[in-house]
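Q: I'm teaching a short session on how sequence maps to structure, and I want students to see two examples side by side rather than one. Could you give me a first protein with its sequence written out and its structure tokens following it? Keep the formatting plain so it prints cleanly on a handout.
A: Of course. Example one:
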Amino acid sequence: MKTVIKSDFPFESKYVKVYGSKVHYIDENRQNDANQTTFVLLHGNPSSNYLWRNIVPELTKQGRVVAPDLIGFGKSDKPEIDYKVLTHERYIEKFINILELDNIVFVLHDWGTALGLAFARKNENRVTGVAFMEGVIKPKKWDFGKARTRLIFRLFRTPFIGQWMIIKNNFFVENILLHMGTKRELSTKEREYYAAPFLSKNSRKPVYVFPNEIPINKKPRDVYEMVKSNHEWLSRTSIPKLLLWVKPGVLIKPWHVIQMQESYPNLHTEYLGISSKGFLKESHYVQEDFPYEIAQSVSKWFRTKDYQARLNVI
């Protein structure tokens, strides 16, 4: 029987002020239990917590689920800030601290991976595990995606051309997110929800900044150092890790999986499946193609004896 991927977003919207701006988030299954596990779901560019809508219900069977929209994305405010990665890191850290979240299991995607890993690296006593997919996990060279994808991202990082593509013509949202980045065709309702935060040119600055922050060939230096530190932390920490991957992905290829299996202790991997039959298609927004597989994999990993044994000694 074919699995139906739902377009509805049936969660109560909540807002909290972070550095004077409203951050939108959902907070499901919160209990009066200081030891309750909290799954923190972080998205990337140019999506929102809508990406997790079909995954949240399964995770609420295991604990509390908190999923914010990054500042400048989704229903969060768009203040006059630089939207650089280290700025997003400050906002996420402040958000987590304001909500006083502990016993965290991160579920991470795209730039949310770098942001969540940075917090976990600096606050390991507050994090019990990290699950990640199609994310910025280690510094890169020009070796990700297919040739067409690399060409597009080179253009994104070219002065004036990148601004023309992303800010004036909304190329990242209309093409990468809504067309190229998934196996299936998104519904009209899904497309409208994703497109809504970026209808004006002024709203697209956050989308433009992120591709220029990818740490390629050690530039930009500050993001390179952050992502390098994340990778080194993953290589030495015994914290439980779950890698979810597809074929063909954009940021995580089969050889990356092998490298991580050899380098990261206590890493479990789950192959979700073939993401695309098209020659040019790659799946990056895997939550739109494999939401229930992701939800079940995270739940199964969380319920393993090794993971539960770790929880009992924290």
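Q: Perfect. Now a second example for contrast.
A: Example two:
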Amino acid sequence: MWKDDDRIMNILDSVEIKEKKQFPVICPICGKREGHLYFHKYNSNENAGGMWTWCSACKHSAHARFKLPEWWKNLEIINFHELVSCPDYLEKNKVIIDEWINKLM
């Protein structure tokens, strides 16, 4: 079961300060390299969308509306209709998501 915890949003720090990190990153809660991030742009004309951060090890997660980075492009294999607040669907696709973010950054 996922635990909602805003501390997991510290995963965003490496994106916001434009520091090159390789995902998965170290979880700010448990310290294991199991921290993941996914954005999804809702409208191609805006930079607003959804943001998910989660840790596969300690099962902490957060989801929020977010102003996406300019460089973000949605990952085509991610089905928008499967996205909900808990990251179960994203967890199943974490390897591909991590590779995508590493490529875009």
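Q: What should students look for in example two?
A: Point them to this: The radius of gyration is 12 Å. Also worth mentioning: The first strand starts at residue 3 and ends at 4.
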